[in-house]
UniProtKB/TrEMBL annotation, chain A:
<dbReference type="InterPro" id="IPR016174">
    <property type="entry name" value="Di-haem_cyt_TM"/>
</dbReference>
<keyword id="KW-0349">Heme</keyword>
<feature type="transmembrane region" description="Helical">
    <location>
        <begin position="335"/>
        <end position="356"/>
    </location>
</feature>
<dbReference type="GO" id="GO:0008121">
    <property type="term" value="F:quinol-cytochrome-c reductase activity"/>
</dbReference>
<keyword id="KW-1278">Translocase</keyword>
<dbReference type="GO" id="GO:0005886">
    <property type="term" value="C:plasma membrane"/>
</dbReference>
<feature type="transmembrane region" description="Helical">
    <location>
        <begin position="41"/>
        <end position="67"/>
    </location>
</feature>
<keyword id="KW-0812">Transmembrane</keyword>
<keyword id="KW-0813">Transport</keyword>
<feature type="transmembrane region" description="Helical">
    <location>
        <begin position="209"/>
        <end position="233"/>
    </location>
</feature>
<feature type="domain" description="Cytochrome b/b6 N-terminal region profile">
    <location>
        <begin position="15"/>
        <end position="241"/>
    </location>
</feature>
<keyword id="KW-0679">Respiratory chain</keyword>
<feature type="transmembrane region" description="Helical">
    <location>
        <begin position="376"/>
        <end position="395"/>
    </location>
</feature>
<dbReference type="Pfam" id="PF13631">
    <property type="entry name" value="Cytochrom_B_N_2"/>
</dbReference>
<feature type="compositionally biased region" description="Basic and acidic residues">
    <location>
        <begin position="527"/>
        <end position="543"/>
    </location>
</feature>
<feature type="transmembrane region" description="Helical">
    <location>
        <begin position="113"/>
        <end position="132"/>
    </location>
</feature>
<feature type="transmembrane region" description="Helical">
    <location>
        <begin position="264"/>
        <end position="283"/>
    </location>
</feature>
């Protein structure tokens, strides 16, 4: 019998052939490897959210091994001396144990919290990018809706997670949440009682929040994120306009290897930054807040940043109570408007925006090319209005801290917020609109007349003019060159953008390559040292 | 804009035979891309192989990877051997978490920047153009799919046999509700059970025994315990009175100065609370009528009580009327007196609903 020889070099090829025989993956795999992605730094903001989510899953699983979601009263007897002997819920005690008794537990807790904050921040910034560049237009409305849902589901994930340790600060937040549910007309008390299993705080809310936080909400997030990414993949990414880029193509890099490598590196960097933050910056030091007790609160108790706008709207709301004089009389408390109605309106407006804009502009075409914010002043100004509205609310969520640090009256801060909420958005709209028009005009100016060179020339008749470098070749035209068409992309506005200066010399301490000579126009003589200046005088001798 | 401008040249293209001898691997890659309607239009190495620049970049990436390994090792060393257990006043445990963060962060950043440099600087730069195939589905295809689905409806014959459709709806709707019933039925809880929303721990016991006001440590309170202008958080002197089980019971007992007490009594008369105070002492619910936070910042000079959550302010001398902020309702007042032993007791429960407002509050 002939001895079969094992050929190591051919093994991977044989294995691959075997796999392909069974699953027929060669063609789809090649398509995947070859898929082209357009590249721009602003396309990576959503990735930060995705990567933070992965870190959240990793650290979150660790935390579940040690957290006890129970409100059973225990007497703390751990190593944190100031709280020893204090009655508290098992949830709070186990959160303290994660911070003090579990090796490396504190950094996991802090990384989890920082990753959550980063997750929400990245979602918001990504959403702003998508909004201001018009990436939400047809065919991507569905993904816009999923994205805005992701914000609100993330909000819920954050709030439920924040409430779990059952410390003094989060318990107060939970108390406010119960009041918000109570304020809903007709069904409020039934909703609250059903969720809390009786009167606040009850004994079950932490375990209900726990299962929501570790199973239901993450499952929903994973599902939404998968559809979100799948649609990006299916519909192909938008791209900026530019040379060779049309509505019908994608200009960029193939996914493998370079694009994927960059993504992998970026993930590691996001992960690393979260690790640094989790280790170096303290967040939510629950041992300082003590267990939740209904009668204890401290000033300057702020929620996480993404909840602050709701806190702000609640603070600014005037005490308008609506009484309905039927039967025994019914009440709509003022709390209802800023905490239930306002978020409702925000969800509705944000999800519907793509359709509202398409309807308004009667634009039902598919758009794969992005728009620069300046080219769509109305949308950009509406976005600025929304940002101004949000900022006033968020700042008002910390108005007691601002009042304290800057020695301002607290009531003045509230009034500033109320007035600011009404006037800041229109001002933002107007200013942004004018800025956009100004930027547009400047682009057109440069395209028509060229880039400012900084060279001042004196004309024979005594006038001074600045020399402009035209962007297009000379033409029989009024001023000797032709105006260029605006293509929706950056217009060079500095001479070194036109290659008029030599490229920067590379190397940190010493040049690693011979510097390239700066290009000199053939018509120009080499620059000579300036001749001694003569004093310009009026002819009369100076006294 | 036509969607097929980019690759018109590709449409009628003869596919390259990949078995042709002499083809480079890149030729085959380019052919593969072309078969996916991708044209690699620009492909340029960023570094000349063997150049000083390349060696420098390779060294940099290698250093980053080694740094990463070093930091990871340091992480393990710190994780295992650093004295991390918390003990008051020791100090070394304070450095544990920062050191873990620093070493873990550095090792991850090392890998991250290493791979990024490798990918961004050492790999060739390319520009590829892929056709989007937008609107690639032909009207025919749409029509065929639509007809297929309509044909399925035909096969089911719901139109010809309407009873099937009606009975399906009528029969299965309750089945759907069955899925929801246990969830709703299990969770639902009557908010008015035992009148819980309208009573607090200060409600007199069965025999009419009045409830004492006690401190956080459980001791009852005498009038002499609070000096004029002072205030004290008190709880119902019942079992679990000082716990979250009676989260709506915490009350603020305030000893007003003479002139403030005078004003306060007049204000109380106006709202029909003439006999709620005892001497210069008044008691108001500590639970804000706005969102339920404890309104606990008492400004002695102005007799204002501020809730730190949303800055509602209540004027105590005007029967805790909300004077600023989002609260719309007075803090409920607890009628108090002193019992035969000289301790404060609640004459009755609060006569108004304690805590945040809701729809059916009478």
């Amino acid at each position: 019998m002939k001895r079969r020889k094992f050929d190591l070099a051919a093994a991977p090829g044989k294995a691959a052939a075997g796999v392909d025989d069974r699953f027929q993956v060669a063609t789809p795999l090649r398509r995947l490897l070859n898929k082209v992605f357009p590249d721009h730094w602003s396309f990576l903001l959503g990735e930060i959210a995705l990567f933070s989510f992965i870190v959240l899953l990793l650290t979150g699983v660790f935390l579940t091994f040690f957290f006890e979601p129970s409100m059973t009263e225990v007497i703390y007897n751990g190593s944190y001396a100031p709280l020893r002997g204090t009655p508290m819920s098992a949830a709070y005690a186990s959160s303290l144990d994660i911070s003090f008794e579990v090796r490396g537990g504190l950094i996991m807790r802090q990384m989890h919290h920082w990753a959550a904050l980063l997750f929400m921040a990245a979602i918001v910034v990504h959403m702003l990018r998508v909004f201001f560049t018009g990436a939400f237009r047809k065919p991507r409305e569905t993904n816009w809706i999923i994205g805005s849902l992701l914000f609100w589901v993330g909000f819920l994930a954050g709030f439920t997670g924040y409430s779990l340790p059952d410390d003094g600060l989060s318990g107060t937040g939970l108390r406010i949440a119960s009041a918000i549910m109570l304020s809903i007309p007709v069904i409020g008390s039934w909703v609250t009682s059903s969720i809390f299993g009786g009167e606040f705080p009850g004994t079950i809310i932490i375990s209900r929040f726990f299962i929501a936080h570790v199973l239901l909400i993450p499952a929903l997030l994973v599902a939404l994120i998968s559809v979100h990414l799948g649609l990006v993949f299916k519909q192909k990414h938008t791209q900026w306009p530019g040379p060779g880029r049309t509505n019908g193509n994608v200009v960029g890099e193939r996914m493998f290897p370079r694009y994927a490598i960059k993504q992998g590196g970026f993930f590691m960097i996001v992960f690393g930054v979260i690790a640094l933050m989790g280790g170096l910056f303290q967040i939510n030091p629950i041992w300082l807040f003590g267990p939740y007790e209904a009668w204890v609160v401290s000033a300057a108790s702020q929620p996480d940043w993404y909840v602050m706008f709701l806190d702000g709207s609640t603070r600014l709301m005037p005490a308008w109570q609506i009484n309905i004089p039927i039967g025994d009389g019914y009440v709509i408390p003022p709390l209802f408007w800023p905490t239930v109605v306002l978020p409702g309106i925000l969800v509705g407006l944000s999800t519907l925006y793509p359709f509202l804009e398409a309807r308004h502009l009667k634009d039902y075409k598919s758009h794969n090319l992005l728009q620069r914010p300046r080219d769509v002043p109305a949308r950009t100004a509406v976005g600025a209005m929304a940002v101004a509205f949000y900022l006033v609310l968020t700042l008002s969520g910390a108005n007691d801290v601002i009042a304290d640090k800057f020695q301002i009256s607290l009531n003045a801060m509230t009034w500033a917020g109320r007035i600011g909420l009404l006037i800041a958005p229109p001002i933002a709209y107007y200013v942004t609109y004018r800025l956009c028009l100004g930027l547009q005009q400047h682009d057109r100016e440069v395209l028509a007349h060229g880039v400012e060179t900084g060279i001042i020339r004196r004309l024979p008749d005594g006038r001074f003019v600045e020399v402009h470098q035209p962007l297009s070749a000379a033409q029989e035209h009024g001023d000797g060159h032709g105006a260029l068409e605006y293509t929706g992309w950056v217009v060079p506005k500095k001479m070194n953008r036109l290659g008029a200066l030599g490229p920067a010399v590379r190397g940190f301490f010493y040049p690693i390559e011979k510097p390239v000579e700066a290009p000199v126009s053939p018509g120009h003589p080499p620059v000579e040292p300036r001749p001694e200046r003569e004093e310009i005088s009026s002819g009369e001798p100076r006294r | 804009m036509s969607t097929h401008t980019e690759h018109q040249a590709q449409q009628g293209r003869e596919p390259l035979d990949v078995n042709t001898p002499g083809l480079t691997r890149f030729d085959i890659v380019r052919e593969g891309a072309r078969r996916d309607d991708i044209e690699i239009v620009h492909y340029e190495p960023q570094v000349v192989s063997g150049s000083k620049a390349e060696r420098r970049l390779v060294r940099l990436v290698a250093w980053l990877f080694l740094l990463s390994g070093l930091a990871a090792t340091a992480f393990l060393v710190v994780y295992i051997w650093w004295p991390w257990e918390y003990a008051p006043g020791r100090g070394s445990d304070k450095w544990y978490t920062p050191l873990l963060g620093l070493t873990l962060g550095l090792s991850l950043l090392g890998i991250g920047f290493g791979i990024l440099t490798w990918g961004k600087k050492l790999l060739p730069k390319e520009v590829s153009i892929q056709d989007r195939h937008e609107g690639a589905v032909s009207p025919d295809d749409r029509s065929i799919t639509g007809q297929t689905m309509l044909y399925m409806a035909d096969e089911l014959g719901v139109k010809r046999r309407p009873l099937l459709g009606i009975s399906l709806l009528a029969g299965l709707a309750p089945v759907g509700a069955v899925a929801a019933a246990p969830l709703v039925g299990g969770l639902i809880s009557n908010p008015h059970k035992n009148n819980q929303m309208f009573t607090t721990g200060f409600a007199p016991a069965e025999g009419g025994q009045k409830v004492r006001l006690v401190r956080e440590d459980g001791r009852p309170v005498r009038p002499s315990d609070i000096s004029a202008g002072g205030q004290l958080t008190v709880f119902p002197g019942i079992e679990h009175g000082i716990s979250n089980r009676h989260a709506d019971s915490p009350t603020l007992l305030i000893h007003l100065r003479d002139e403030d007490a005078q004003k306060s009594r007049q204000a109380n008369e106006r709202v029909g609370h003439g006999d709620y105070m005892w001497g210069n002492y008044a008691a108001f619910s500590k639970i804000c009528t706005h969102a339920g936070c404890p309104a606990s910042l008492y400004e002695q000079q102005t007799n204002r009580l501020l809730c730190p959550c949303h800055q509602s302010q209540f004027l105590i001398t005007d029967n805790a009327r909300p004077v600023f902020g989002p609260a719309s309702r007075r803090l409920p007042q607890l009628p108090i007196e002193v019992d035969s032993e000289g301790f404060f007791v609640a004459k009755s429960d609060f006569t108004e609903t304690v805590g945040p407002d809701f729809w059916e509050r009478p």
